[in-house]
Write the structure tokens for this entry.
Amino acid sequence: MERVIRNKIKIGISSCMYGSNFRYNGKGYDITKHIGRDRSNFIWYPICPEVNGGLGIPRSPIHVSGESGDNVWDGSGRIRDRSGRDQTDKLISGCVDGLRQLKENQIKVYIFMEGSPSCGIYRTSLKNNRLGKPPGVFGSLLLKEEIFLIPAMDLQSPIKKWDWFRRMYSFLWVDEMIIDSKDSLYEMWHTVKFLCQEVDEKRARILGRKMANLGKYVEDEKLSEMKREVLMMLRKPSSLSKIKNRLWKHYKYYEKKMKLDVEEVYEPRDNVSMGRLAKKITEIELELYDRGEFFSLSPILNRSGR
């Protein structure tokens, strides 16, 4: 099976991160400018649950009243604005509409505004670096739908952006793959196992052992379960230090062992050097692809714009 994505990828994104002035204070920020020319390789679907629900622009900022955004869906939590007015029904309506847009357009990737009480996943507040009550109300839906989630501000970091996108390509490739036999399961695992081990080594090795112990016949339910485990691993966030160390280690390996024709770069210590390293790794990906060689660090390439 070809390890390349050739069709343009559909990506949902919080509208305020797409440049729309949809935040409560009427401001927005175009995070996609950090993607550069590759921005045209994607089909963008801006979504704002708060505006969709009729909260208006500008508006009084809202917060979760309850344990988390999860509780808003079971009725034990509420959404209130700064004046104490209950805005729960409006936000729920906007979130349901946002999820409908994602499903109708078969969107499996979403770039979210962290710190938002609606879209946030790990934080629902931007005040004094507090966590708030995560996940947000829309974030709760996105987590349950098992969509591939990218924090918008991570796209400002060349290395974080590179890491999220290589895992996104692998996630979408695995998601589209039909796993109907042990052979197709092994083919999928052979392609992404090193990336899974990098993200969560313990969980990946346990899954690898499970696959090795499979009998001659494997039920469809078991195949689907193992495919889902891979998808869940690929969605898991990583840390900057972990990504940087892996990136540098692989760069030095391929530079010396494969005698690749790439300009030498230095170990990343700041944004400029990290950007250069991410650029060189991308060059290595393309060169190995052209040579017909497998690159475990980024097993799936996006060639939709080429």
Q: What stands out?
A: Strands lie at 4-5, 9-14, 42-47, 62-65, 78-81, 109-112, 148-151, 301-302.
